[in-house]
Protein backbone atom coordinates (compact mmCIF):
# COMPACT_ATOMS: atom_id res chain seq x y z
CA UNK A 1 0.00 0.00 0.00
CA UNK A 2 2.82 2.34 0.94
CA UNK A 3 4.45 1.68 -2.41
CA UNK A 4 1.28 2.64 -4.31
CA UNK A 5 0.90 5.82 -2.28
CA UNK A 6 4.50 6.76 -2.98
CA UNK A 7 3.96 6.09 -6.67
CA UNK A 8 0.81 8.29 -6.71
CA UNK A 9 2.55 11.14 -4.89
CA UNK A 10 5.51 10.94 -7.30
CA UNK A 11 3.37 10.91 -10.47
CA UNK A 12 1.13 13.71 -9.14
CA UNK A 13 4.18 15.79 -8.30
CA UNK A 14 5.70 15.26 -11.74
CA UNK A 15 2.36 16.12 -13.36
CA UNK A 16 2.08 19.25 -11.23
CA UNK A 17 5.60 20.36 -12.15
CA UNK A 18 4.89 19.75 -15.86
CA UNK A 19 1.64 21.77 -15.74
CA UNK A 20 3.34 24.62 -13.84
CA UNK A 21 6.25 24.76 -16.28
CA UNK A 22 3.79 24.71 -19.22
CA UNK A 23 1.83 27.60 -17.67
CA UNK A 24 5.05 29.53 -17.02
CA UNK A 25 6.23 29.01 -20.61
CA UNK A 26 2.82 30.19 -21.88
CA UNK A 27 2.89 33.31 -19.66
CA UNK A 28 6.45 34.07 -20.80
CA UNK A 29 5.29 33.75 -24.42
CA UNK A 30 2.33 36.12 -23.85
CA UNK A 31 4.64 38.58 -22.09
CA UNK A 32 7.22 38.56 -24.87
CA UNK A 33 4.68 38.62 -27.67
CA UNK A 34 2.37 41.42 -26.48
CA UNK A 35 3.19 42.96 -23.12
CA UNK A 36 6.94 43.49 -22.89
CA UNK A 37 7.95 47.00 -23.97
CA UNK A 38 10.11 47.07 -27.11
CA UNK A 39 13.66 48.32 -26.68
CA UNK A 40 14.46 51.86 -27.72
CA UNK A 41 16.69 51.15 -30.71
CA UNK A 42 18.11 54.65 -30.73
CA UNK A 43 19.85 53.78 -27.47
CA UNK A 44 22.09 51.43 -29.44
CA UNK A 45 23.06 54.16 -31.91
CA UNK A 46 21.59 56.53 -34.45
CA UNK A 47 22.34 54.38 -37.54
CA UNK A 48 21.19 50.92 -38.61
CA UNK A 49 22.70 48.85 -41.40
CA UNK A 50 20.49 46.42 -43.32
CA UNK A 51 21.47 43.79 -45.88
CA UNK A 52 18.79 42.53 -48.26
CA UNK A 53 17.29 45.99 -47.94
CA UNK A 54 15.84 46.21 -51.45
CA UNK A 55 13.02 43.71 -51.04
CA UNK A 56 10.87 41.71 -48.65
CA UNK A 57 11.61 41.65 -44.96
CA UNK A 58 14.81 43.73 -45.19
CA UNK A 59 13.08 46.52 -47.09
CA UNK A 60 10.11 46.52 -44.71
CA UNK A 61 12.55 46.71 -41.80
CA UNK A 62 14.10 49.76 -43.45
CA UNK A 63 10.76 51.58 -43.35
CA UNK A 64 10.10 50.40 -39.81
CA UNK A 65 13.44 51.64 -38.50
CA UNK A 66 13.25 54.90 -40.45
CA UNK A 67 9.80 55.54 -38.91
CA UNK A 68 11.60 55.55 -35.54
CA UNK A 69 14.11 58.11 -36.77
CA UNK A 70 17.05 55.78 -37.37
CA UNK A 71 19.40 56.69 -40.21
CA UNK A 72 20.09 53.79 -42.55
CA UNK A 73 22.94 52.17 -44.41
CA UNK A 74 21.28 50.02 -47.06
CA UNK A 75 23.27 47.13 -48.50
CA UNK A 76 22.10 45.61 -51.79
CA UNK A 77 23.30 44.16 -55.06
CA UNK A 78 21.24 46.26 -57.44
CA UNK A 79 22.13 50.00 -57.56
CA UNK A 80 18.81 50.95 -59.17
CA UNK A 81 16.75 49.09 -56.58
CA UNK A 82 18.88 50.60 -53.82
CA UNK A 83 18.34 54.09 -55.18
CA UNK A 84 14.58 53.43 -55.51
CA UNK A 85 14.39 52.16 -51.93
CA UNK A 86 16.28 55.18 -50.65
CA UNK A 87 13.87 57.50 -52.47
CA UNK A 88 10.80 55.69 -51.11
CA UNK A 89 12.15 55.87 -47.56
CA UNK A 90 13.23 59.51 -47.83
CA UNK A 91 9.83 60.46 -49.30
CA UNK A 92 8.17 59.20 -46.13
CA UNK A 93 10.76 59.73 -43.41
CA UNK A 94 13.22 62.47 -42.58
CA UNK A 95 16.32 60.30 -42.14
CA UNK A 96 19.70 59.96 -43.81
CA UNK A 97 20.17 56.95 -46.07
CA UNK A 98 23.56 55.72 -47.33
CA UNK A 99 23.89 53.02 -49.98
CA UNK A 100 26.44 50.23 -50.33
CA UNK A 101 26.44 48.11 -53.46
CA UNK A 102 27.57 44.54 -52.79
CA UNK A 103 26.59 41.45 -54.71
CA UNK A 104 27.39 38.87 -52.06
CA UNK A 105 27.41 36.13 -54.62
CA UNK A 106 30.18 37.80 -56.57
CA UNK A 107 32.22 39.65 -53.97
CA UNK A 108 34.67 37.79 -51.73
CA UNK A 109 34.13 37.84 -47.96
CA UNK A 110 37.02 40.12 -47.05
CA UNK A 111 35.98 42.59 -49.74
CA UNK A 112 32.40 42.56 -48.34
CA UNK A 113 33.79 43.41 -44.90
CA UNK A 114 36.04 46.15 -46.35
CA UNK A 115 33.16 47.85 -48.18
CA UNK A 116 30.96 47.74 -45.09
CA UNK A 117 33.75 49.08 -42.87
CA UNK A 118 34.32 51.98 -45.27
CA UNK A 119 30.58 52.73 -45.46
CA UNK A 120 30.07 52.85 -41.69
CA UNK A 121 33.33 54.62 -40.86
CA UNK A 122 32.52 57.48 -38.49
CA UNK A 123 28.84 56.55 -38.16
CA UNK A 124 27.18 55.76 -34.85
CA UNK A 125 25.97 52.32 -35.97
CA UNK A 126 23.87 50.62 -33.30
CA UNK A 127 21.94 47.98 -35.19
CA UNK A 128 22.78 45.45 -37.89
CA UNK A 129 20.03 43.53 -39.69
CA UNK A 130 21.29 40.63 -41.82
CA UNK A 131 18.28 39.90 -44.00
CA UNK A 132 19.74 39.12 -47.44
CA UNK A 133 18.93 35.57 -48.41
CA UNK A 134 18.70 33.18 -51.33
CA UNK A 135 16.57 30.05 -51.63
CA UNK A 136 16.12 27.25 -54.16
CA UNK A 137 13.85 28.10 -57.08
CA UNK A 138 12.27 24.72 -56.37
CA UNK A 139 13.05 21.60 -54.36
CA UNK A 140 15.70 19.17 -55.57
CA UNK A 141 18.00 16.44 -54.34
CA UNK A 142 21.33 17.65 -53.03
CA UNK A 143 23.30 16.15 -55.94
CA UNK A 144 21.04 18.06 -58.35
CA UNK A 145 22.01 21.47 -56.97
CA UNK A 146 24.11 23.08 -59.69
CA UNK A 147 27.35 24.70 -58.62
CA UNK A 148 26.13 28.26 -59.26
CA UNK A 149 23.12 27.84 -57.01
CA UNK A 150 25.22 26.05 -54.41
CA UNK A 151 27.84 28.78 -54.42
CA UNK A 152 25.16 31.50 -54.29
CA UNK A 153 23.34 30.03 -51.31
CA UNK A 154 26.51 29.51 -49.31
CA UNK A 155 27.79 33.00 -50.12
CA UNK A 156 24.56 34.95 -49.58
CA UNK A 157 23.11 33.04 -46.61
CA UNK A 158 26.26 32.13 -44.77
CA UNK A 159 29.38 34.04 -45.80
CA UNK A 160 27.61 37.40 -46.32
CA UNK A 161 26.14 37.77 -42.83
CA UNK A 162 29.31 36.38 -41.27
CA UNK A 163 31.59 38.94 -42.92
CA UNK A 164 29.17 41.85 -42.43
CA UNK A 165 28.92 40.98 -38.74
CA UNK A 166 32.72 40.88 -38.52
CA UNK A 167 32.88 44.33 -40.11
CA UNK A 168 30.29 45.92 -37.82
CA UNK A 169 31.28 44.37 -34.48
CA UNK A 170 34.38 46.53 -33.73
CA UNK A 171 32.26 49.73 -33.85
CA UNK A 172 29.80 48.20 -31.40
CA UNK A 173 32.55 46.87 -29.13
CA UNK A 174 34.13 50.34 -28.97
CA UNK A 175 30.80 51.88 -27.95
CA UNK A 176 29.98 48.95 -25.65
CA UNK A 177 26.50 48.72 -27.14
CA UNK A 178 24.76 47.40 -30.21
CA UNK A 179 22.25 44.91 -31.53
CA UNK A 180 22.56 42.35 -34.30
CA UNK A 181 19.56 40.71 -35.90
CA UNK A 182 20.04 37.73 -38.19
CA UNK A 183 17.06 36.51 -40.18
CA UNK A 184 17.22 32.72 -40.07
CA UNK A 185 14.47 30.26 -40.78
CA UNK A 186 11.75 28.38 -38.93
CA UNK A 187 13.04 25.18 -40.50
CA UNK A 188 15.89 25.36 -37.98
CA UNK A 189 13.80 25.13 -34.84
CA UNK A 190 10.40 23.84 -35.85
CA UNK A 191 11.13 21.01 -38.27
CA UNK A 192 13.15 17.84 -37.73
CA UNK A 193 14.45 18.04 -41.33
CA UNK A 194 14.00 20.00 -44.54
CA UNK A 195 14.70 17.47 -47.29
CA UNK A 196 15.32 18.57 -50.87
CA UNK A 197 15.99 22.10 -49.63
CA UNK A 198 18.97 20.88 -47.68
CA UNK A 199 21.52 23.55 -48.44
CA UNK A 200 19.15 26.43 -47.70
CA UNK A 201 18.07 24.88 -44.38
CA UNK A 202 21.66 24.05 -43.43
CA UNK A 203 22.87 27.62 -44.01
CA UNK A 204 20.01 28.88 -41.86
CA UNK A 205 20.93 26.40 -39.10
CA UNK A 206 24.45 27.84 -39.26
CA UNK A 207 23.02 31.34 -38.77
CA UNK A 208 21.07 30.25 -35.67
CA UNK A 209 24.14 28.63 -34.08
CA UNK A 210 26.36 31.56 -35.12
CA UNK A 211 23.91 33.93 -33.40
CA UNK A 212 23.66 31.83 -30.23
CA UNK A 213 27.43 31.69 -29.89
CA UNK A 214 28.28 35.33 -30.57
CA UNK A 215 25.39 36.35 -28.37
CA UNK A 216 27.28 34.82 -25.45
CA UNK A 217 30.64 36.14 -26.62
CA UNK A 218 29.50 39.78 -26.79
CA UNK A 219 26.73 40.03 -24.16
CA UNK A 220 29.24 41.42 -21.67
CA UNK A 221 30.20 44.09 -24.23
CA UNK A 222 26.61 45.35 -24.32
CA UNK A 223 25.81 43.75 -27.68
CA UNK A 224 22.50 41.90 -28.07
CA UNK A 225 22.56 39.26 -30.80
CA UNK A 226 19.42 37.56 -32.02
CA UNK A 227 18.39 35.15 -34.74
CA UNK A 228 14.76 35.36 -35.80
CA UNK A 229 13.34 32.18 -37.29
CA UNK A 230 10.12 32.99 -39.15
CA UNK A 231 7.96 30.51 -41.00
CA UNK A 232 6.42 31.75 -44.26
CA UNK A 233 6.24 35.48 -44.96
CA UNK A 234 4.67 36.75 -48.18
CA UNK A 235 7.65 37.98 -50.23
CA UNK A 236 9.38 37.52 -53.57
CA UNK A 237 11.28 34.63 -52.04
CA UNK A 238 8.35 32.61 -50.69
CA UNK A 239 5.97 33.57 -53.52
CA UNK A 240 3.16 32.89 -51.08
CA UNK A 241 -0.07 34.83 -50.86
CA UNK A 242 -0.82 36.61 -47.61
CA UNK A 243 -2.97 34.64 -45.15
CA UNK A 244 -3.36 34.42 -41.38
CA UNK A 245 -0.26 32.24 -41.17
CA UNK A 246 1.63 34.12 -43.90
CA UNK A 247 1.99 37.79 -42.96
CA UNK A 248 3.11 40.53 -45.32
CA UNK A 249 6.72 41.66 -44.91
CA UNK A 250 5.39 44.92 -43.39
CA UNK A 251 3.33 43.08 -40.78
CA UNK A 252 6.22 40.75 -40.04
CA UNK A 253 8.67 43.62 -39.66
CA UNK A 254 6.44 45.33 -37.07
CA UNK A 255 6.37 42.24 -34.89
CA UNK A 256 10.04 41.52 -35.70
CA UNK A 257 11.06 44.97 -34.46
CA UNK A 258 9.42 44.42 -31.04
CA UNK A 259 11.75 41.51 -30.31
CA UNK A 260 15.07 43.10 -31.21
CA UNK A 261 17.54 42.98 -28.33
CA UNK A 262 15.88 40.21 -26.36
CA UNK A 263 16.21 36.40 -26.65
CA UNK A 264 18.88 34.68 -28.75
CA UNK A 265 16.55 32.73 -31.07
CA UNK A 266 12.94 33.84 -31.48
CA UNK A 267 9.87 33.35 -33.63
CA UNK A 268 8.32 36.82 -33.46
CA UNK A 269 5.06 36.36 -35.35
CA UNK A 270 2.58 34.78 -32.94
CA UNK A 271 0.81 32.58 -35.49
CA UNK A 272 4.19 31.16 -36.56
CA UNK A 273 4.76 30.25 -32.90
CA UNK A 274 1.37 28.58 -32.74
CA UNK A 275 2.10 26.65 -35.94
CA UNK A 276 5.50 25.68 -34.56
CA UNK A 277 3.99 24.47 -31.30
CA UNK A 278 1.61 22.10 -33.08
CA UNK A 279 4.23 20.86 -35.55
CA UNK A 280 6.67 20.10 -32.73
CA UNK A 281 4.01 18.04 -30.95
CA UNK A 282 3.79 15.66 -33.95
CA UNK A 283 6.29 12.76 -33.88
CA UNK A 284 9.35 13.50 -36.06
CA UNK A 285 8.83 10.40 -38.22
CA UNK A 286 5.43 11.70 -39.41
CA UNK A 287 6.75 15.19 -40.11
CA UNK A 288 9.79 13.79 -41.95
CA UNK A 289 7.65 11.57 -44.12
CA UNK A 290 5.19 14.39 -44.88
CA UNK A 291 7.99 16.83 -45.75
CA UNK A 292 9.69 14.37 -48.06
CA UNK A 293 6.45 13.76 -49.98
CA UNK A 294 5.68 17.49 -50.03
CA UNK A 295 9.06 18.49 -51.43
CA UNK A 296 9.10 15.62 -53.91
CA UNK A 297 5.82 17.04 -55.19
CA UNK A 298 7.33 20.54 -55.52
CA UNK A 299 10.37 19.08 -57.23
CA UNK A 300 8.15 17.40 -59.84
CA UNK A 301 6.18 20.63 -60.30
CA UNK A 302 9.36 22.66 -60.68
CA UNK A 303 10.92 20.19 -63.06
CA UNK A 304 7.91 20.05 -65.33
CA UNK A 305 7.61 23.83 -65.33
CA UNK A 306 11.28 24.33 -66.22
CA UNK A 307 11.77 21.18 -68.27
CA UNK A 308 12.55 23.32 -71.28
CA UNK A 309 15.23 25.20 -69.36
CA UNK A 310 18.52 23.39 -69.31
CA UNK A 311 20.54 23.45 -67.08
CA UNK A 312 18.51 24.05 -63.89
CA UNK A 313 17.67 27.72 -63.30
CA UNK A 314 20.41 29.84 -61.79
CA UNK A 315 19.89 31.78 -58.57
CA UNK A 316 19.79 35.00 -60.56
CA UNK A 317 16.68 33.81 -62.38
CA UNK A 318 15.14 33.08 -59.02
CA UNK A 319 12.84 36.04 -58.94
CA UNK A 320 10.95 34.79 -61.97
CA UNK A 321 10.06 31.46 -60.40
CA UNK A 322 6.60 30.87 -59.07
CA UNK A 323 7.42 28.78 -56.01
CA UNK A 324 10.52 28.80 -53.95
CA UNK A 325 11.18 26.55 -51.07
CA UNK A 326 11.98 28.86 -48.23
CA UNK A 327 10.89 28.84 -44.63
N1 LIG B 1 9.88 34.88 -46.99
C1 LIG B 1 9.86 33.83 -46.20
O1 LIG B 1 8.89 33.05 -46.15
C2 LIG B 1 11.04 33.55 -45.29
C3 LIG B 1 10.88 32.57 -44.33
C4 LIG B 1 11.95 32.30 -43.48
C5 LIG B 1 13.12 33.02 -43.60
N2 LIG B 1 13.24 33.96 -44.56
C6 LIG B 1 14.52 34.70 -44.65
O2 LIG B 1 14.27 36.08 -44.56
C7 LIG B 1 15.27 36.80 -45.27
C8 LIG B 1 14.61 37.79 -46.20
O3 LIG B 1 13.87 37.03 -47.16
P1 LIG B 1 12.71 37.69 -48.02
O4 LIG B 1 11.58 36.76 -47.95
O5 LIG B 1 12.53 39.11 -47.63
O6 LIG B 1 13.36 37.55 -49.47
P2 LIG B 1 13.35 38.53 -50.72
O7 LIG B 1 12.11 39.31 -50.77
O8 LIG B 1 13.72 37.67 -51.87
O9 LIG B 1 14.57 39.52 -50.39
C9 LIG B 1 15.86 39.02 -50.35
C10 LIG B 1 16.82 40.18 -50.30
O10 LIG B 1 18.15 39.64 -50.37
C11 LIG B 1 18.83 40.29 -51.43
N3 LIG B 1 19.83 39.46 -52.07
C12 LIG B 1 19.63 38.29 -52.73
N4 LIG B 1 20.77 37.88 -53.28
C13 LIG B 1 21.71 38.80 -52.98
C14 LIG B 1 23.08 38.96 -53.30
N5 LIG B 1 23.71 38.10 -54.08
N6 LIG B 1 23.74 40.04 -52.82
C15 LIG B 1 23.13 40.95 -52.07
N7 LIG B 1 21.81 40.89 -51.75
C16 LIG B 1 21.11 39.83 -52.20
C17 LIG B 1 17.73 40.64 -52.42
O11 LIG B 1 18.19 41.61 -53.34
P3 LIG B 1 17.34 41.98 -54.67
O12 LIG B 1 16.30 42.94 -54.21
O13 LIG B 1 18.35 42.59 -55.55
O14 LIG B 1 16.76 40.70 -55.19
C18 LIG B 1 16.65 41.11 -51.48
O15 LIG B 1 16.88 42.44 -51.08
C19 LIG B 1 16.10 35.76 -46.00
O16 LIG B 1 17.29 35.57 -45.29
C20 LIG B 1 15.25 34.51 -45.96
O17 LIG B 1 16.01 33.34 -45.97
C21 LIG B 1 12.22 34.27 -45.42
From TrEMBL:
This is Uncharacterized protein. One of its GO terms (cellular component) is endoplasmic reticulum. Coiled coil: none annotated. Belongs to the short-chain dehydrogenases/reductases (SDR) family. The keyword Membrane applies. Pfam families: adh_short. CDD domains: 17beta-HSD1_like_SDR_c. PROSITE patterns: ADH_SHORT. One of its GO terms (molecular function) is ketoreductase activity. The keyword Transmembrane applies. Keywords: Membrane, NADP, Oxidoreductase, Transmembrane, Transmembrane helix. It comes from the Eukaryota. The chain crosses the membrane at residues 6-27. It is found in: Endoplasmic reticulum.
Amino acid sequence: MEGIELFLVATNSIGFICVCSGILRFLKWVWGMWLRPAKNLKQYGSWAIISGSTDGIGKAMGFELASEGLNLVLVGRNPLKLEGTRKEIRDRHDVEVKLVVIDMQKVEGEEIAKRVEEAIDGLDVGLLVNSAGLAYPYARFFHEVDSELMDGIIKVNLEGPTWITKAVLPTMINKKKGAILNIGSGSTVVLPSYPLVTLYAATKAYLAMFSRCISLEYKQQGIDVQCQVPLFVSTKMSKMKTSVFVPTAEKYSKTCRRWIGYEKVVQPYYLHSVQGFFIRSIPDAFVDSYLLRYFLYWRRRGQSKYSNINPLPSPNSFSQHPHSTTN
